[in-house]
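Are you able to produce any protein sequence you like plus the matching backbone structure tokens because I've never seen that pairing?
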Amino acid sequence: MSTVARGLLQAAAWLLLVVAAGLLLAVTAGPRLLGYRTATMLTGSMSPTIRPGDVVIDTPEPAASVRVGQIITYHVPTQDHRVESHRVVWVGRSADGAVLVRTRGDANAVDDPWTARLAGSTVWRVRTVVPVAGSVIRTLRLPLVHVLMTGALPAALVAGLLVAIWRPAPVSGTADAAAGRSGSASGGRRPCTGRRTRSRPGRRPPTACPPATPGSRSGTSAAS
């Protein structure tokens, strides 16, 4: 694997780790610090607005301000008191002034079969949707994946980074370097072979190579 490909792979792994850690912090620490609440959509009753596996981010607002068309997250008035995130289709008041709502999923043809009484003075309204985040978080919470993400993967990334930093640089070929030095020392002149060539009629005969001086060789610099 080339150095560039290895670097891209390490960068992608670090990015994946940072994104996964950010999602976990947003779901676990974010609600306590910033006051919002998250919920994972389990069914397709709100598709295509909210799909299964998406995470909704809710913020509190006064129950008296609930309007038709808003999506709220509330406990349904059934035996299991499960949490639903559905769209408000009707708002009313009880005899004692409590806020009553009827809701419906965007993918459903009929309203939910109940009228919900909003307990308390606030209601959780859906503000934004994070696609697929719920599925990713559920996967990250699996014991094996949790061990890999928090232990094995960071250790492997650190080890790869250390190897890339401390790996010795490749040694260049000595033969090529020596050849380059020899060519520069000779000044780029063609060495004399000492052989005589025949001259053509009417031309001056070529001059023979000058005799070599003691202590010197053709193509190299003399030692002083």
About this structure: The beta strands are 37-40, 55-62, 71-75, 83-93, 99-104, 116-117, 122-130. Residues 183-187, 216-224 have pLDDT under 50 and may be disordered. The helical segments are 3-28, 30-34, 133-140, 143-166, 174-185. The domain at 58-128 is CATH 2.30.30 (SH3 type barrels.).
